From TrEMBL:
InterPro entries: Cu-oxidase-like_N (IPR011707), Cu-oxidase_2nd (IPR001117), Cu-oxidase_C (IPR011706), Cu-oxidase_fam (IPR045087), Cu_oxidase_Cu_BS (IPR002355), Cupredoxin (IPR008972), CuRO_1_LCC (IPR034288), CuRO_2_LCC (IPR034285). GO terms for cellular component: apoplast. This is Laccase. It is found in: Secreted, Extracellular space, Apoplast. It catalyses: 4 hydroquinone + O2 = 4 benzosemiquinone + 2 H2O. Residues 44-155, 169-323, 431-567 form the Plastocyanin-like domain.
């Protein structure tokens, strides 16, 4: 064996020690793991509301499997599509830094995983994120039943910015149809009108009292409702996720209150409340102290919050909160206590909750803004297409738009693939406008009855951003066809919510209301019906990222747009090539 000169030998020794040091550090501190799952997606027959229903589900479970990872881990999910439908899965709220290929929205970041055992492996790193997120199908209405929790634990055990809770529970809120959701969507598109409402709400996949026309009653302990058993004096972290397709929800637990500590996996300043308000796509982490009479049983209840003026649809469901050791075995003499819910149209309570959260900041708000946009959005109409056989020719087909562009998915290639090829021609155009083409009284009372601003047209337009640009977007709801709260979800980024309010945004009056100190950070903002919200983010993640209404009733109508973020100047700012099994059309 050749002898090394001593300096070189020392040098090598130093490298070895250094590597060892890194390995030990990695092991002790980061201990990054690979969290690997296989999702077999296919038909599942379940019983709900006294009837058998075939749904699309993952691994024969509804809700689907919970994924738990720690900050720093790599998540690998092998998806096998055994369902009869095109499929893709989105990891809602995961930043997907340099892994846009794994984001999941159908025809935006990928073509669908085809039926008859098509496969795709989603692979992404969890970097700098802690809290509650979730995953769901991002094609058609399949997310009605294809969803589950995605829990990101801190890298170091229990290093929360609040006292470590004694236990935790995931509360997935959803909606239930007693027909195929694919048929519900198909019918809505043929009619050019809103889809049928669900027939019940669910908590962790189960329908309790108050749901589905009262099939269960409140004095019996129904085995079909979710039950959480707690111990008196202990504090629990409730990870609440709104997986409902189309409705924002109020959530309460009788005789218990909450301290909100995070929203959309971003820590918040502690916020005390007895009601949680949560829009589709959003999550809320709330501490709940079990400090009520342990001899009683309590309902937790979810109820529709309806922001649309004059709407009448409302629904509710319950789950049980019981105290150990007796829990559900206890005598049923005393009725289970029901929380007093807000009125289904209590926008004051909803808006108060949404606007009261502030962020527990790890990094500051960008103060310099490179690009400012004013984006109006809401419902409108396009002339019925010939294929829309059930469409009302007088009214036209309901459409939704942003800056008067009704977003249309491409059909031949995903936006991301076209972006990577540098050949958007025929797939998308780069002319999404920074401002609405016409300024008008967006939220005026007369707007709901004024048809002159209703007409919109379809297009696949993106807004192109330079790497690392800071972007501020004024999200301005319109009252055309009715003012309604739309939860807008941005993929690939968390954004700061600087301000929100009713009416038309007015820079002169509202810029001074910006919270640049501790604004909440979110991935989904519930923009007030007939109002506005201002968001700001740094475009430091190359790829194509959709921003859309998280009401599935509005997404196929076109309430969406996409940001195309260019690569940066350094290798760590360049989107790597797609994985070998990337689905193409
Ligand atoms: C799955 O369910 C759908 C809808 O009920 C049905 O059309 C299809 O044949 C089923 N597929 C399989 C493989 O069972
Ligand atoms: C994810 O983490 C792994 C392991 O640290 C690393 O090798 C890989 O480059 C990361 N991927 C991306 C897209 O950053
Ligand atoms: C679904 O539920 C609704 C409301 O309870 C009921 O009117 C309808 O008949 C049910 N449809 C099916 C197919 O069971
Ligand atoms: C939607 O509701 C209407 C009216 O109740 C009913 O006729 C129709 O069959 C429903 N559509 C689906 C897909 O269930
Ligand atoms: C409630 O459930 C109990 C026990 O199953 C039953 O005896 C009672 O008739 C039910 N009441 C109603 C109103 O359905
Ligand atoms: C529960 O709350 C209600 C309404 O605030 C109150 O009247 C009742 O006494 C409470 N019950 C218990 C067991 O704490
Ligand atoms: C709500 O109903 C009232 C009374 O019918 C009507 O005056 C008002 O214009 C309606 N509002 C909307 C936004 O449709
Ligand atoms: C809420 O609905 C009720 C009954 O439908 C109605 O009387 C009331 O005016 C509505 N409140 C608001 C704030 O729209
Ligand atoms: C179409 O809409 C118009 C205007 O609201 C209404 O008068 C008409 O009855 C509708 N036609 C059908 C077939 O529903
Ligand atoms: C929106 O676009 C349509 C179709 O191009 C046009 O007729 C309409 O005037 C535009 N409306 C607004 C408010 O810009
Ligand atoms: C991104 O922009 C910030 C200031 O806005 C700057 O400090 C940073 O160096 C930039 N990063 C890159 C990689 O360009
Ligand atoms: C499924 O995806 C393929 C490839 O994009 C497409 O050609 C086909 O029309 C889709 N099928 C349905 C039912 O949407
Ligand atoms: Cu919407």
């Amino acid at each position: 064996m050749a002898r090394l000169p001593s300096t070189a030998a020392n040098f090598h020794l130093a490298i070895v020690l250094c590597l060892l040091h890194h390995l030990i550090n990695d092991y002790l501190l980061a201990d990054a793991a690979i969290v690997e799952h296989t999702f077999h997606v296919g038909n599942l027959s379940v019983q709900r509301l006294g009837q058998s229903q075939v749904i699309t589900a993952v691994n024969g479970q509804f809700p689907g499997p919970k994924i738990e990872a720690r900050d720093g881990d790599t998540v690998v999910v092998h998806v096998v599509n055994l369902s009869p439908y095109n499929l893709s899965i989105h990891w809602h709220g995961i930043l997907q830094r340099l892994s846009c290929w794994a984001d999941g929205p159908n025809m935006v970041s990928q073509c669908p995983i085809r039926p008859a055992a098509g496969t795709y492996t989603y692979r992404f790193n969890v970097t700098g994120q802690e809290g509650t997120l979730w995953w769901h199908a991002h094609v058609s209405f399949l997310r009605a039943t294809v969803y589950g929790a995605l829990i990101l634990h801190p890298a170091a055990p229990s290093s929360y910015p609040f006292p470590t809770p004694h236990g935790e529970a995931t509360i997935l809120l959803g909606e239930w149809w007693n027909v195929s959701v694919v048929d519900v969507e198909r019918q809505a598109l043929l009619m050019g009108a809103g889809p049928n409402n669900s027939v019940a709400l669910t908590i962790n996949g189960l329908i309790g009292a108050g749901g589905g026309g009262g099939s269960e009653n409140s004095s019996s302990s129904s085995s079909s409702q979710y039950e959480l058993a707690v111990q008196r004096g202990r504090t629990y972290l409730l990870r609440i996720i709104n997986a409902a397709l189309n409705y924002e929800l109020f959530f309460k637990v009788a005789n218990h209150s909450f301290t909100v500590v995070a929203a959309d996996a971003c820590y918040t300043d502690p916020y005390h409340t007895d009601v949680i308000v949560i829009a589709p796509g959003q999550t809320v982490d709330a501490l709940m102290r079990a400090d009520a009479d342990p001899g009683r049983r309590y309902y937790m209840a979810a109820q529709v919050y309806q922001s649309l003026a004059n709407a009448t649809y409302s629904a509710a469901t319950t789950a049980l909160l019981t105290y150990l050791p007796d829990a559900s075995g206890s005598d049923d003499e005393q009725p289970t206590l029901m929380p007093t819910m807000p009125a289904f149209n209590d926008s004051a309570t909803a808006q108060s909750f949404y606007a009261s959260l502030t962020g527990l900041l790890q990094d500051g708000v960008p103060l310099h803004v490179d690009t400012r946009m004013l984006v109006t959005f809401g419902l409108g109409a396009t002339p019925c297409a010939s294929a829309q056989t059930l469409c009302n020719r007088t009214l036209g087909s309901v459409a939704a738009s942003m800056n008067n562009v009704s977003f249309q998915l491409p059909t031949t290639m995903s936006l991301l693939e076209a972006h990577m090829r540098g050949a958007p021609d025929g797939v998308y155009t780069r002319d999404f406008p920074d401002r609405p083409p016409v300024m008008f009284d967006f939220t005026g009372d007369a707007m709901a009855a004024n048809r002159s601003f209703m007409l919109t047209s379809k297009g696949t337009k993106v807004k192109t951003l330079r790497y690392n640009e800071t972007v501020e977007v004024v999200l301005q709801n319109t009252a055309v066809l009715g003012a309604e709260n739309h939860p807008l979800h941005l993929h690939g980024f968390n954004f700061f919510v600087l301000a929100q309010g009713p009416g038309n945004f007015n820079a002169h009056r509202h810029v001074r209301k910006y919270n640049l100190v501790n604004p909440q950070q979110r991935n989904t903002v519930a923009v007030p019906g007939g109002g506005w919200a201002v968001i700001r983010f740094t475009a430091d993640n190359p790829g194509v990222w959709i921003m859309h209404c998280h009401l599935d009733a509005h997404l196929p109508f076109g309430l969406a747009m996409a940001f195309e973020v260019e690569d940066g100047p350094t290798p760590d700012a360049v989107l790597p090539p797609p994985p070998p099994d990337y689905p193409r059309c």
